[in-house]
Specification:
The chain is α+β, with helices and mostly antiparallel strands and 348 residues long. It has helices at residues 3-20, 24-34, 40-46, 56-92, 111-125, 139-142, 180-189, 230-245, 298-304, 320-328, 341-344, and strands spanning 129-130, 136-138, 162-163, 172-174, 194-203, 215-225, 251-258, 261-270, 287-296, 312-318. The structure holds 3,4-dihydroxyphenylalanine (DAH).
Length: 348
């Protein structure tokens, strides 16, 4: 085979191989096999010295021409492959700016707080001021000062979470009701007349069931002043019930007992679902039990710094979860605090 034939072969093979090159890595290999230091053309040109002198100029020109041709082909292919690589990169980063955005997941007020806010608004309309008192409370405030006898069953370890305290220091507990807040407010403000609403968490050491949780909420209302009567309490509760449950809601007080009130009552409202006709929620009685209330016991007034000969008052403690359970026909209280988003989201 003559040198010219060899050059023709290199030219043909290089053209074929270049067609098969798919990326810049392949192109670099192609370059080194044909025009690199050990490439086919470079190797061939090194042998030119051995040719007869009359052939050298001709072959030399062919070699140079082919080198230029291959270098040109390399430059063109490199530009094409670089562009293709860039295009692929851009295609991978492509964004459809016309696509609708993803709606952010928004939270909302928890059902319990929705009810508490509504309650606060209603009581505020009647001049009740919202305030708070400690969840970790002295035994004395939770029980004794509220006129609980020393052997009252509510003091039982079964019902109350006690806090460990050093021996010889006063007994501390997680409040079992919001009523100790009454005592704190009275002691702070006596002998001012009071209209107070105390919302907050309470704790009971009870078996968790569909009806009872270890932690739930209450709101306590307290009015103290001169000449406050049970009629004032009834009017206050009737207004609350109408604003909470609708204008035709009836209120009923049933005699009851609490150590801190005398007389004491349970307040019922006419069932807002069946309007008193009887349904599943009111257990066909036409009435819903809302919570306890009564006239503040003279001992409690006295402990709070008010002379029961001059002052009287009414108080009550209701549960917002119970209000919500009834309102929405929820039959398992555990949904409120189990952390189930599915439960909570129903009440956005
Ligand atoms: N503290 C009572 C309870 O937790 C509720 C209650 C009843 C509060 C009567 C009062 C009241 O202020 O007068 O069951």
């Amino acid at each position: 085979m003559t040198v010219i034939d060899e050059l023709d072969t290199i030219e043909a093979e290089a053209a074929l191989a270049l067609n098969a090159v798919a990326d810049l890595g392949g192109l670099a290999e192609w370059k080194s096999s044909y025009i690199g230091k050990t490439g086919a053309l470079t190797r061939l040109s090194r042998g030119l010295g051995a040719l007869p002198a009359d052939q050298r100029p001709e072959v030399g020109r062919r070699v140079n021409a082919l080198r230029e041709q291959l270098e040109g082909a390399y430059t063109t292919a490199e530009a094409r492959l670089k562009r293709a690589a860039q295009d692929a990169e851009l295609a991978a980063e492509r964004l459809d700016v016309t696509m609708p955005g993803r709606a952010p997941a928004l939270g909302h007020i928890h059902l319990t707080n929705q009810v508490l806010r509504q309650v606060q608004d209603i009581f505020a309309e009647m001049g009740f001021q919202v305030t708070e008192s400690p969840e970790v409370e002295l035994d004395e405030y939770n029980f004794s000062l509220l006129n609980f006898a020393d052997d009252h069953p509510a003091r039982d370890m079964q019902d109350t979470f006690y806090v460990e305290v050093p021996e010889g220091t006063p007994s501390v507990l997680l409040r079992t009701h919001t009523s100790p807040g009454q005592m704190r407010v009275m002691r702070e403000r006596a002998p001012e007349p009071l209209r107070i609403l105390l919302p907050g968490k309470v704790y009971r050491n009870e078996q968790v069931t569909v009806r009872s949780e270890m932690m739930f909420h209450q709101f306590e209302f307290l009015a103290v002043g001169r000449n406050i009567t049970m009629g004032d309490m009834k009017g206050t509760l009737a207004y609350f019930a109408e604003r909470m449950y609708g204008p035709n809601t009836q209120v009923r007080l049933r005699p009851s007992f609490f150590p801190f009130t005398e007389p004491s009552a349970e307040m019922d409202v006419s069932c807002f679902l069946c309007e008193g006709k009887g349904c599943r929620i009111c257990k066909h009685s036409g009435w819903l039990e809302i919570g306890g209330c009564g006239m503040v016991h003279p001992n409690v007034l006295r402990n709070g710094g008010y002379d029961p000969e001059l002052f009287s008052g009414f108080a009550g403690g209701f549960g917002p979860e119970r209000i919500a359970l009834l309102k929405y026909g929820i039959d398992d209280i555990r949904g409120f605090y189990s952390g189930s988003i599915a439960f909570v989201e129903q009440f956005g």
